[in-house]
Write a structure and sequence with these properties.
single chain; 2 domains; Methyltransferase, Methionine Synthase (B12-binding Domains), Chain A, domain 1; Rossmann fold; about 55% helix; alpha/beta
Length: about 220
Amino acid sequence: MNELLEQIAVCVERGKVNAKSPFPPDLRGQEGVDELTRTALAAGVPAQDLLEQGLIKGMQAIGARFRRDEVFVPDVLMAAKAMKTGMAHIRPYFQSGEVKRKGVFIVGTVAGDMHDIGKNLVAMVAEGGGFEVVDLGIDVSTERFLEALGQKPGAVVGLSALLTTTMTSMAETVQAVKLKYPGTRVMVGGAPVTEHFARQIGADAYSADPQGAVEYLNTVVA
């Protein structure tokens, strides 16, 4: 069974969705996450083991390589696509309670900002890391973040901004979240954002990449 889980992890890392997928070229014609996940479940592999030792392990590997500049955004997107294929098979186990999420992560690009690539990467890697992700999208108002927190109390909030002009929106949202929901952890990120700015506006954490975001989330739920 360990060998099967290792295969799944490798396929997630390489972005091998299924046997029909032409990517990556060196794995053409071989089974991917889709077939291997179904095989593992049919063989009696616990869904929790499949999540942690297969899907999450693969996403952690690609996240670490992305941080080291060994792979690029398209590689992470393909890995996320493969991971989601596997997640579709174990989603019923979340609903039954057999598989547990680590926690809830609410993420969005702040008001006035329409950029979503970085935010999407963080959301995908966080889901692959075992978190329930509530992706609010782009141009998200402070009120929408507060509403989402009301629906998911105890969640960690992630704010993204790519424009210097929208960093003020980020600051306003952090202050509003801390005022209405004291104790809520808020993480920020984006091209113009720095660790100094994060501290200045009262955020709990800053991450320059998706893997760092997931590492922070893991410390919060540990």
